Design the sequence.
């Protein structure tokens, strides 16, 4: 923990030193997505303990942290300490942000997350059942995602204003799904959800199972420009097609 002198030295005009943190819970997963760059499925030895995660969250809170992204590594909602972790984040007056494949999203879990002031980002790689099940490597994935999404909507996750979204959908763009990317984008906007388009990362399981479906830079640029056009003409949003240099990720 930081002492008062250290916190004072690190403070810059009242701005938080860390606004958000991202934590993985376990590599255990109930799907085998072909594009997974972490090769999730089973837990290795020596995974971080829940107590250690909570201790780190407390330290981030002292540094001004406002939210915690719980991404799992695998599927966070099947982590044994998941509900305890989400409640702890909320008690720390931080926003829990859960990234989930939605397969286990029951009405009870959706209500729990809503009551704990969470935001949720679900998997929605395709609006076609055959494509979604193929990418997840598990039958019935599409139906379970849609059922989970129904629960999230029913408990109120899409009831806020367009400037206060609590529900979003993340979709990995492959050459298999390039044609429906605009449809997924519109689906999100029409349901008051945040659309999060991601490019296929050529690592992990994707190297052996999905490399042949990697879009080219030109294809990705074209689809991004199409999405921007949709947002500007139909929904009143605008954004940069390319992030500034300081905002670029590892790729």
Sequence:
């Amino acid at each position: 923990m930081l002492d008062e002198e250290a916190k004072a030295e690190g403070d810059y005009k009242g701005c938080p030193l860390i606004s958000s943190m991202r934590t993985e819970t376990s590599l255990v997963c109930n799907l085998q997505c072909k594009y997974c760059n972490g090769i999730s499925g089973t837990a290795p030895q020596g995974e971080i303990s829940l107590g250690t995660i909570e201790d780190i969250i407390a330290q981030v809170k002292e540094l001004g942290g406002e939210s915690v992204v719980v991404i799992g590594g695998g599927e966070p909602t099947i982590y044994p300490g998941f509900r305890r972790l989400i409640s702890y984040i909320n008690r720390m007056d931080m926003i829990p942000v859960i990234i989930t494949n939605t397969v286990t999203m029951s009405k009870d879990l959706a209500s729990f997350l809503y009551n704990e002031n969470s935001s949720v980002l679900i998997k929605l790689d395709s609006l076609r059942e055959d494509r979604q099940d193929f990418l997840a490597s598990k039958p019935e994935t599409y139906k379970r995602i849609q059922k989970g999404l129904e629960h999230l909507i029913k408990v109120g996750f899409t009831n806020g204003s367009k400037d206060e979204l609590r529900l979003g959908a993340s979709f990995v763009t492959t050459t298999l799904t390039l044609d429906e990317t605009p449809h997924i984008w519109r689906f999100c906007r029409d349901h008051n959800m945040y659309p999060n388009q991601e490019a296929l990362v050529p690592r992990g399981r994707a190297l052996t199972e999905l490399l042949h479906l990697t879009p080219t830079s030109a294809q990705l640029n074209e689809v991004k420009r199409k999405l921007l056009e949709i947002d500007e003409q139909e929904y009143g949003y605008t954004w940069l097609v390319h992030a500034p240099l300081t905002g670029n990720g590892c790729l």
